Predict the structure.
Amino acid sequence: MHVLAETAAATVRPTLSPEQLRCLYKQNSESSRKNATRKGLWTAVAAYLAYSFTDYLFIGDVVQYTVAGRLVVGIAALCVLEFLLYRKAKADTVDMAAALSVLAAYLVWLLTGQMTAVRDAFSYYMVFGAIFMMSVNLFFSFRFPVALAASATNVLIFTGALYLFAPMLLLHKLILGAFCFSCFVFTSYVNLQLNRERYKVFLNALEASLQQAAADERGKALLHLSNTDSLTGLENRRAVDQRLRDHWQRWQDDSAPFAVLLIDVDYFKRYNDCYGHQEGDRCLIAVSELLRSVAESWGSIIGRYGGEEFIVITPMPNPERMVELAEAMCAAVRALAWPHEHRRDGTTVITVSVGVSYTRDESKQVEKVIHEADRALYAAKAAGRNTLVVFDPEDPESSDDSEDIAATLKIALDHGLVSLVYQPIRNVQTGKTDAVEALMRLSMLDGTSVPPVKFIPVAERTGSIVELGRWAIRTVCRDLLAAHLVQVASVNVSPIELKTPGFATYVAATLAEFGVTGARLAFEITEGVELEIDQDVVRCISDLRKLGAQVWLDDFGTGFAGLSWLRLIEFDTVKIDRSFLHDCNTERGKRMLLDIISLLRNRGVQILIEGVETIEHQRLMQQYGINQIQGYFIGRPAPAAQLEADNVLQFSMIRNLDSKRLFRNGP
């Protein structure tokens, strides 16, 4: 059994020796042993006094002495026990005192009982001494050495009394002595097994507690991992969402306002492309550590909300505090002076844009606070980045309810709330419509029209643009190209669509379904500040060109990436932004437009001018040798049905003209 116990001990804690484990067992069992001894002694004293009745029956002539002895020993034993417990004596001391009390009780009973005149009855009555020995081994939780010594002493006392006081045959004495010795061996063995079993139970309990502790540690570690961003060590989005709910509950219960800051690292995708992802990770770690130190100094919570975006939750005793915190974070990142030489805005270090929102009486959901911070961040990036914007509910630009637009976009296709109109692109030389541009329109459930400048950003932020874009491609192929209403139709695509896996595959399947060749479908990519040169975008554009589809660069000259895109991709057509044409009322504006036209002609691409709204605009384009133009003077956006009617009218006019010529010239 000792071997098994030591094996179990080695399994539980290999770093602890058997001796150390026994010491630990002794320490852990101190309290339980003292409680068990106390309970056992009180029970033993009660039984000891109760046996006064048998004294009355068997040795009644000396019962007054035996009962007095029992009372003195019992009360003294309990007093000593309680005194030791009061003094917080060790369990070994308490056990020793209890064992001596049992021996004293037996001796006192023998000495008082042997004075009886009924010597023969007392000779056999002495066998009750085995009860004292059995109580030491079975009714207490003494350690085996103490129990063995006490019970062996009890046997010696019984044997001595048997041969001194018992007037019986030697054979009878041997029988009683053998009975007492047998009880000693049996109860000592039981005590040994009980002690070993207690030790084994301790080892099992220790193993279970260690396993539970290890499981708790693993659970804490897993919880920490599930709530921690693996790269930066900040709280991740899951943990931050819980923090937001906690702050929101305090706002609801105790009116404790808080603010939310969304922080985005400017041009980080370009940083990754130019410096590599490992350097990008180093940059994020450095920025996150800096933001953490600033947030903690302001008593705020910070987490990584995804990609290069961080979120800060801060108490807001006054509106000035959240602005000061946002400014401190922007300034700290600028002071870090982490190099970013490949930015497109003239800045050469890493900076951040910050969008700030806060709880107000109008705040009905925590999601609304986050959405407002996201809109403020979007405005900060649109304002040139490296700045902060606080969401202003009174700002006319914020008056539209984006939540309603986002909800409408989710059901727009099922309820027919989106439609396409087509704006013609005319060839100045031939006077014919070479192509049309598909433009999306959205109506709310009450019939209110929402301009694209409002619903397109919402669609991009919510991801609805992917489904809407695919619907637009399919509609153009089915209603225009397959019906041969126009030769070429262009569709605007978002960078989000180009990054979506399977976009080119969907285009290929749609073209095949309607039997349309790729050259009749053009994709307009807007050159804006939000279109960063991303490898996924470049790869998708390459796949579209392999399908034969045309790729146009829209709004050329309005962003920073135009020349980079011209260097990377062979565009079929470049659309010069309308602002350059409208600036031609000055000589400087004309020279700028001519320079852009010269640049594009040297690149060998087709040029299309947007914003032709007057006859003077058209004549100027003819003077500059531009063939393709687009604008309200050429034609306003119209549904597909009107395009079909215009084609019928144009075909009828051509037939009439041909008939008149034939009538004048003769057969």
The radius of gyration is 48 Å. Residues 301 and 554 are 42 Å apart (CA to CA). The first helix runs from residue 2 to 12. The first strand starts at residue 258 and ends at 265.
